[in-house]
Amino acid sequence: MIVAFSVTPLGVGEDVGEYVADAVRVVRESGLPNRTDAMFTSIEGDWDEVMDVVKRAVAAVEARAPRVSLVLKADIRPGVEDGLTSKVETVERHLAE
């Protein structure tokens, strides 16, 4: 399972990078495969472990912000491992043709 999610603190002003860093820190410390880009953090693992990390990432932001927005998208595909890498490699292979 791959989950792409974005946690945004609300009511803290325009500069939210330090709050987002709190959430990303939780993800990176989880030990699960992950990637962060300008819009989302993606994490890969089984349902329970991924959702636990998302919950803890939201809680980290919620501890410092009066309101939190969560956007989440999941690719639930049993039996697939290393999807974070293999999906991108497939697209890159087609681009190279």
TrEMBL record:
Family membership noted in the UniProt record: Belongs to the UPF0045 family.
PANTHER family registered for this protein in UniProt: UPF0045 PROTEIN ECM15
Organism per entry: Streptomyces atrovirens
Boundaries of every Thiamine-binding protein domain copy: 3-92
Domain of life (superkingdom): Bacteria
NCBIfam families for the chain: MTH1187 family thiamine-binding protein
Name of the featured protein: MTH1187 family thiamine-binding protein
